[in-house]
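help with these tokens:
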Amino acid sequence: MKHVIALDVGGTGMKAALVGADGTLLHAARRPTGRERGPDAVVESIVGFAADLRAHGIEEFGEPAAAAGVAVPGIVDTEHGIAVYASNLGWHDVPLRKLLSRRLEGVPVALGHDVRTGGLAEGRIGAGKGADRFLFVPLGTGIAGAIGIGGGIEPGAHGSAGEIGHIVVRPGGPPCGCGQRGCLERLASASAVSQAWAAASGDPEADAADCAKAVESGDPLALEVWQNAVDALADGLITALTLLDPQTLIIGGGLAEAGETLFTPLRAAVAARVVQFQTLPQIVPAALGDTAGCLGAGLLAWDLVHQKSDPTEVTA
């Protein structure tokens, strides 16, 4: 049975699957990255995991995987297959595509940025299915973005398109790790809400989920913290809307797990900022959860297979 390998590499763990031609998950597995042993060990964990998946495919389905797709964090040169930089993994210029292809007996390998790969899956088979133009924004430890156009993801000229988290929405605001002040990421990510609520509540262990519960109970301090984050997020999204004019805004990540506690005020805040020449897009929660990256990696791999059989086909 024809299949591909899909790998989603996170800071501490990896999710993987063998994916059939119709998108069926034929086999799923997880492993730690082994980052406590250093960056070289992480690379070996990835290529070793991929080799084991290849062997499983031969044993179970009678043939090796036709291609592999891998989603990784950090800065990624997808054209040359290089993991340029990932602070949480200690990577600098790792030729991951070459290393994987060598271990997988020469099969084609696609390398993608984790958020953009997850966005690819949300756009094609998740919350953005049917939308020709969408923006996927996960609100987690940080905030990134994936710009969906015509079934693919726009990487930009240098592989950094969609980094909405580093739009400055509060000039002179709190310092960001990127060197700027007042970035969206520092005000509206799940970690930013956690930090703000811990300070406001006096509980150093409190997090964004606790803040959401307090909002639901009507706590005025929590309402203020939450609304500040929603307003900052709406300001960032209206900038993206002005530049991109998407049909759909897909919001994912940990903060989106608050459901309508987030989406009701967020839709209202974005709508209040839309002016005459703009069209308000649908604002919807992501549908695929933490499987998006792995599913997207599978789509990247199948794109390689289809591209090989039809060089004129446009892929992500």
